[in-house]
Amino acid sequence: MSSKIQDFANQVILGVGAAPQTATSTVTGTAGDLLAGDSRCFAIQQVGTVSGTTPTLDGKIQESSDGSTNWTDVSGATFTQVTASSNYQAITFDRTKRYVRYVGTIAGTSPSFALAVVISEQKKQL
Length: 126
What we know:
mainly beta, 7-stranded antiparallel sheet, 7 strands, 6% helix, disordered N terminus
């Protein structure tokens, strides 16, 4: 087994995204600082139970230079729309700014999505 896999916790920035929750309206995750990161980022969106009439979830990653203003969508960092329970997706992307966050737009009649999202990036190797 490679040392990078054995030392995963010290090789990757974790904890950015959206905490596990049941959401009934748009979810905006907190800003995550990836200054210590290097290389491609990845994000995992996991959806459990979905309910409502024609519920939809459109997840994407945004970036900002200061973590509080001027958020823009990261090119190509979008998840396929979710309309049903038990959906798991992973995407990779390149960011150009220091901070990232997850935004999940929820629509439909009385929609409800059990979801969690993690955004990560490999730490810079010195």
